[in-house]
């Protein structure tokens, strides 16, 4: 078990005794992938296709046929149920490593391989694993996700969150960790200012979303962002969240990259996931489509992708913006 401060960040690269988060993560993931049988399928050399110069498609048919059956979800604040599958029940062979922010093992966070991965290095961050928290975002877990982006010092790392009724398939607090070297559309799209630290994606993006810009100097970013999340929870609005390196929210490509925290309010996906050509969860909303069907992979057009995304947009986004203004 590590401590969070054991890892080297871009701000203390001279501390050679510190550990490199991303190297440990990749090395251990590869070891589990190639030397154990915990994965439901191997994930090597996925076929890729870029649509309209921006949308990333990856063909992964096994994910629809060999993954665990998703849990039935009916409420975005559904309580944790110890009798259903949760991440305390996984094999120890699925654990990449655990770490804490103090000396209390009850506060242990875990990074697990996703045994039905979307892509290579797809894993799960499970904050406070032993506390058995439901899949309801907390300010502390959001801060942990942001901290991991900064300590990794690798722009290919992304952190994603699907709420209950937002395509989360397990009701136990977790975030998705992805490593992807393609630049995704949501990382460069310009944003419009709403008020204070809150922006929204420009109108030419298929699904409206809020966006916050975070740097290492930002004070209490999770606390600032969580005020908006609380509105979604109180109004029972399903949501997806993506934490990623990207251009400044003004779209200034000459400035240094910052971290974008993007929040999509969305229509509820209440009930079990419908496994078709692809689902619309956090990856798809970012412009990254894991596709299950080879015909669709080879022939789908940008207009069809955008049409599918738009089916899940939150219709009262303009009204929600007005409410959010009152918070900041």
TrEMBL record:
Keyword presence, Acyltransferase: no
MF term (GO), any: hydrolase activity
GO BP terms: glucose metabolic process
A Pfam family per the record: GDPGP1_C
Main localization (coarse): cytoplasm
Domain GDPGP1-like N-terminal intervals: 21-177
GO CC terms of this entry: cytoplasm
Keyword Cytoplasm: yes
InterPro entries from the UniProt entry: GDPGP (IPR026506), GDPGP1_C (IPR058865), GDPGP1_N (IPR058866)
Similarity field: Belongs to the GDPGP1 family.
Protein purpose: Specific and highly efficient GDP-D-glucose phosphorylase regulating the levels of GDP-D-glucose in cells.
Protein's recorded name: GDP-D-glucose phosphorylase 1
The organism of origin for this protein: Parnassius mnemosyne (clouded apollo)
